[in-house]
């Protein structure tokens, strides 16, 4: 082999080795780069999976995680990004159920969409309407503001009477529109709301989301519906706020709310005015005064006082700043339901169509109360008698939590327009409540004990 050739060969070999060395380095780099990309992609997928898992599967044992999950879903719902409607089977069978439930069983019966149908007033009103042969479709988001199992139990009651509750949120426009595509509702009884005066300090946004945004969303759907329904909805005695004139009449001032809850209900009344004015929607607001009774709300004083008395737990009884008794015009559920039905029956048709006003429409506001305020101390004495147990009373100054010292309804307007006349006094109403309570929760009222506690000075 010629030397030059050998030299050439060795050069070529060296060059080859060098090139292969470079290729190796290069391929390692490529490998490193692609494995980095792969690693990042895997990390991203894992993160997404963890997030999805956290959103969809909160551990049942962890109530705080469940609450966070609920709030997360609600915030998605209210922004419209996530819609519960897609999760509902909007197939032929679902539509058939919606139609059947909404169809009246008597001539000229109403076809009513009841929002908050799994709630306290909503479930009672739905049953009353169904009983007289009206078509009733329920709508409820079954939120966990209080024990949702109570809402499910009310739903069971309604299902036994063939009232179907669609599970959805007021802020879910597509779902509400879908319902109006399927059924030409004559009326909406709008009772879904974030209730509770004191909770507004803990979760203010929930009041804005349900009582303002949700209400506007419902009105948007109603105004565009053809025919437009007439709407009766739940305002509140709390709109009277710091009003000092008594008894409260619809002409009194309502521009001094004492809680955010009251402010959102007052806002609802103004929003109702706007939709009536622009779109010809027939709107009736009912100012309910501290409604109580069987299947009631566990967040209300008469309800948790009963529970606490039975468990031997002390209860706080509020007194005003000048050490007077706090009193409420407690109103029994059956009276309130009669008021709701009276308002529905006297509601005139909306005048608009296709989102356009065709003439002036009815706009009303009524007090629905009992017309006889009772001090909270007296409420507790009645409960003690019914439960056969002395309460451990703790008298404290009313905290600054949105409460007002006193409510008293003048109901002459509701009487004049639809014969509203409350007939159940607090003792009779609480008797019915306690009877329901002990049977629902399976508790035995104890034998009356003659114990005296230092704090029992009321
Ligand atoms: O009419 C309304 O528009 C509102 O009625 C209801 O609010 P309220 O009248 O405040 O009822 P509720 O909480 O049962 O307190 C009753 C009484 O017990 C006193 N109270 C309360 C708690 C306590 O620990 N101690 C106490 O003395 C308290 O000071 C009060 O005097 C609804 O919850 C509300 O959603 C709304 O519908």
From TrEMBL:
For this protein, the record's Pfam families field holds:
Epimerase
Extract the InterPro entries matched here: Epimerase_deHydtase (IPR001509), NAD(P)-bd_dom_sf (IPR036291)
In short, the EC number is: 5.1.3.6
Subcellular location(s) of the protein: Golgi apparatus, Golgi stack membrane
Keyword Ligase assigned: no
Any one GO BP annotation for this protein: defense response to Gram-negative bacterium
Outline the extent of the NAD-dependent epimerase/dehydratase domain. 112-349
**Annotated transmembrane regions:** 37-57
Origin: domain of life: Eukaryota
Q: Which UniProt keywords apply?
A: Carbohydrate metabolism, Golgi apparatus, Isomerase, Membrane, NAD, Transmembrane, Transmembrane helix
Report the top EC class in one word. isomerase
- Residues spanning the signal sequence: none
Q: Name one GO cellular component term.
A: Golgi cisterna membrane
Q: Which GO terms describe its molecular function?
A: UDP-glucuronate 4-epimerase activity
This protein's membrane topology, according to the annotation, is: Multi-pass membrane protein
* Reaction it catalyzes: UDP-alpha-D-glucuronate = UDP-alpha-D-galacturonate
Subunit description: Homodimer.
Family of this protein: Belongs to the NAD(P)-dependent epimerase/dehydratase family.
The cross-references to PANTHER family, in alphabetical order and at most eight, read: EPIMERASE-RELATED
Quote the protein name from its UniProt record: UDP-glucuronate 4-epimerase
User: What organism is recorded for this protein?
Assistant: Arabis alpina
The organism that produces this protein has a lineage beginning with: Eukaryota, Viridiplantae, Streptophyta, Embryophyta, Tracheophyta
């Amino acid at each position: 082999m010629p030397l030059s050739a050998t030299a050439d060969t060795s050069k070529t070999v060296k060059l080859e080795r060098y090139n292969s060395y470079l290729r190796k380095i290069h391929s390692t780099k490529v490998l490193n780069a692609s494995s980095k990309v792969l690693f990042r992609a895997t990390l991203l997928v894992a993160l997404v999976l963890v997030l999805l898992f956290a959103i969809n599967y909160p551990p049942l044992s962890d109530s705080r995680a469940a609450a966070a999950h609920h709030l997360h879903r609600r915030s998605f719902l209210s922004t419209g990004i996530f819609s519960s409607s897609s999760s509902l089977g909007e197939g032929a069978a679902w539509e058939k159920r919606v139609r059947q439930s909404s169809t009246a069983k008597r001539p000229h019966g109403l076809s009513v969409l009841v929002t908050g149908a799994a709630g306290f007033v909503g479930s009672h009103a739905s049953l009353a309407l169904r009983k007289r042969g009206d078509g009733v479709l329920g709508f409820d988001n079954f939120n966990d503001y209080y024990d949702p199992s109570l809402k499910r139990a009310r739903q069971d009651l309604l299902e036994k009477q063939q009232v179907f509750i669609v599970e959805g949120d007021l802020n879910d426009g597509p779902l509400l529109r879908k319902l109006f595509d399927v059924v030409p509702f004559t009326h909406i009884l709008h009772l879904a709301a974030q209730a509770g005066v004191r909770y507004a300090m803990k979760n203010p946004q929930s009041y804005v989301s349900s009582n303002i945004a949700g209400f506007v969303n419902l009105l948007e759907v109603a105004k565009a519906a053809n025919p437009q329904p007439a709407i009766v909805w739940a305002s509140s005695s709390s709109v009277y706020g710091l009003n000092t004139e008594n008894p409260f009449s619809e002409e009194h001032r309502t521009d001094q709310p004492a809680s955010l809850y009251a402010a959102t209900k007052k806002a609802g009344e103004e929003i109702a005015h706007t939709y009536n004015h622009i779109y010809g929607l027939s709107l009736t607001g009912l100012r309910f005064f501290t409604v109580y009774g069987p299947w009631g709300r566990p967040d209300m004083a008469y309800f948790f006082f009963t529970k606490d008395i039975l468990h031997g737990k002390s209860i706080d009884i509020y007194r005003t700043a000048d050490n007077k008794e706090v009193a409420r015009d407690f109103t029994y559920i059956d009276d309130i339901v009669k008021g709701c039905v009276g308002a529905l029956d006297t509601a005139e048709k909306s005048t608009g169509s296709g989102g356009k006003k065709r003439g002036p429409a009815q706009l009303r506001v009524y007090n629905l109360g009992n017309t006889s305020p009772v001090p909270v101390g007296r409420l507790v004495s009645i409960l003690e008698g019914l439960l056969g147990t002395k309460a451990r009373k703790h008298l404290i100054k009313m905290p600054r939590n949105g409460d007002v010292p006193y409510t008293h309804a003048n109901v002459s307007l509701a009487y004049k327009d639809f014969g509203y006349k409350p007939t159940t006094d607090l003792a009779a109403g609480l008797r019915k409540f306690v009877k329901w309570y002990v049977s629902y929760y399976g508790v035995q009222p104890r034998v009356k004990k003659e114990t005296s506690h230092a704090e029992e000075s009321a």
